[in-house]
Design a protein that fits this description.
Blueprint (H helix, E strand, L loop, with lengths): L5 H10 L1 H21 L7 H25 L1
């Protein structure tokens, strides 16, 4: 995610607790979605769509932080 900001992401994950929390939440949602799509976890179509929307909101928030600081 956002390879052009790799160095800034690494720095923020260490120095900014809010950013680190958002980043971790995004990754957890991503893994959960992958598990559902691989039939490791079960979920309804609506639940999957809600997870994807939440993941996208987090990604947008992370991107806004990165753009502001770059």
């Amino acid at each position: 995610m956002f390879p052009e900001f790799r160095d800034l992401i690494s720095k923020l994950k260490i120095e900014d607790a809010h950013f680190a929390r958002l980043f971790d939440e995004h990754n957890e949602l991503d893994q959960r979605i992958k598990n559902i799509e691989s039939n490791i976890e079960l979920a309804t179509h609506t639940e999957v769509e809600d997870l994807k929307k939440a993941k996208l909101r987090l990604k947008d928030e992370l991107y806004a932080i990165l753009k502001k600081l770059s």
